[in-house]
Amino acid sequence: MDAEQLHFDLEPVMQRLLEEAYRLLAALPMLLLALLVISLCWAAGGWLSRRAVLERFTSRNPFMRDLTRTTVRWSATVIGILIALEIMNATALVGAVLGTAGVLGVALGFAFKNTMENYLAGILMSLRQPFAPKDHVVIDGNEGVVVALTSRATVLMTLDGNHLRVPNALVFSSVMLNYTRNPSRRFSFDVGIGVNEDLVLAQRIGTSKLDSLDGVMDTPPPRAYITALGDSNVQVRYHAWVDQRSHDFISVKSEAIRQVKLALEEAEMDMPEPIYRVQLTERSAVLTPTAGASESPSPKPSLQPSSESAVDMRVQGDLDAQIAQDQSKRGAEDLLDPSAPRE
Questions:
Q1: pLDDT tens digits, 138-195
Q2: Of the four, 36, 86, 220, 287, which is 20 to 30 A from 194 by CA?
Q3: Domain 128-181+321-333 class?
Q4: CA-CA distance, 327 to 134, in Å (whole number)?
C-alpha cells in the first residue's frame, strides 16, 4: 500500500466546519434574542409571584405560599423557553423534550412514590388541617402531642417526651383520635361490690362523691351502672366528665377512684377480693416455731388515709417547654396554623 492511498483529503471536512460556523454566527442574534426572552419571562414570573393577590390567597399557609410562588415563576419561565424555541425555529425539539420528560416523570414517580405521597398528603392537610398545634392525638396507635406539620411528616411529642415522626401519607389515610378537639372527656372505672350489699346505695354513694369532686363536671352528671355479675362480687361502673381546659384528665380520674373507694369503705360496703379454693392432697410437715419466733411482733402503726383531696388536678404542662423549644427551632417549616379551618 503506497503513500497516495493513505492520503486523507481534509478539504471537505474544513468546508463543512466553516459552513456550520457561518450558520452559528448568522443565528447568533436570534440566540441572543431567545436568551433575552427567557430572562424577561423569568423576571416577569418573579414579579407576578410577589403580587398582593397571591399573598392574600395564601397568607394563612406558608407552604402553599412558597409552592404558589415557585409554580408561577417556573410557569412563566417555561412559556419563555417555548417562545425562544419558536424564535430559533426549533419547535421540533419541543416534542422530543416533552416525550423525554414524560418517560423520566414515570420513572421518577415509581422511584419516589412514597416521597410524593407524603408530599401530596402534606399539601392536602395544610389546606384543611385535621389538628391544631399541641393537640393530644392518637394516629395509627401512635399517641402524642402535635408539635409541627412539615411537607413530609407530622411531628409528635410522645407523653414520655420523645420525638415521633409519622409520615403524612400514613396520617392522611389512618384513623385519628383527637382528645383535645372536644374539651369535655369522660372517664370510667369499675368497682367490685359484695353480692349481699345494696347496689343502688353503692351507686348513689359513688356518684355523690364524684359530684362533689373538684374537676368533675356538673353537666353531664356522674352516673353509675351495674355491668357484670362476677364470681364473688358485682361490677359497678362509674362514669364522670372532665373539662380538659382546666383540669388534668389522668389526675382527676386517679383522685376519683381514690375518693369513691374511701366513700364506700366509710359506708361499710363490702368490696371482696376474688376467692380461690385451695385443695391439699398431701399434708406437709409442720414446722415448730423457735423460741424467738414465739413472741408476737409489735403491731405496726396504721396509717389512716385522709378523705380530703390533696392532689393538684389542674392542667399539667410537663411537655410545654419541650414543645415550645422545638417549635422555635423549626421556624417557618411548620405548616400548622391555629386559625386555619379544621376538618
A1: 999 899 999 988 888 899 999 888 889 999 999 998 899 999 888 899 999 999 999 8
A2: 220
A3: mainly beta
A4: 11
Question: Which sign does the torsion angle of CA 152, 153, 154, 157 carry?
Answer: negative
Cell readout for 81 is 423557553
Output the 3-class SS for 210-241: HHCCCCECCCCCCEEEEEEECCCCEEEEEEEE
CA-wise closest residue to 88 among 44, 39, 19, 36: 36
Closest to 256 measured CA to CA, from 220, 227, 217: 217
CA 7, 8, 10: angle at the middle one, nearest 5? 140
Q: Which three cell numbers stand for residue 6?
A: 493513505
Cα dihedral 109, 110, 116, 120, rounded to 10, equals 80
C-alpha cell at 124: 392536602
Please report which helix (H) or strand (E) contains residue 27, including its range: helix 11-49
Q: Cα–Cα distances in Å, from 206 out to 82, 118, 240? A: 79, 49, 10
Rounded distance, CA 194 to CA 190, Å?
13
Q: Which of 334, 314, 339, 309 is nearest to 324 (CA)?
A: 334
CB 123 within 8 A of CB 62: no
Asked if 147 and 161 touch (Cβ cutoff 8 Å), the reply is no
In this structure, the dihedral spanned by the alpha carbons of residues 116, 122, 128 and 133, taken in order and rounded to 10 degrees, is 170
Report the SS3 class of residue 265. helix
Q: What is the largest CA-CA distance in the chain?
A: 132
Q: Is the CATH number 3.40.50.2020 carried by domain 184-276?
A: no
In eight-state DSSP terms, residue 52 is: H
Residue-wise pLDDT tens digits, 182-212: 889 999 999 999 988 999 999 999 999 999 9
- Global pTM? 0.60
Is the peptide bond between 220 and the residue preceding it cis, with omega within 30 degrees of 0? yes
- Kindly list the domain boundaries of the chain, sorted by start residue: 14-111, 128-181+321-333, 184-276
- Over its C-alpha atoms, the chain yields an Rg (Å, rounded) of 38
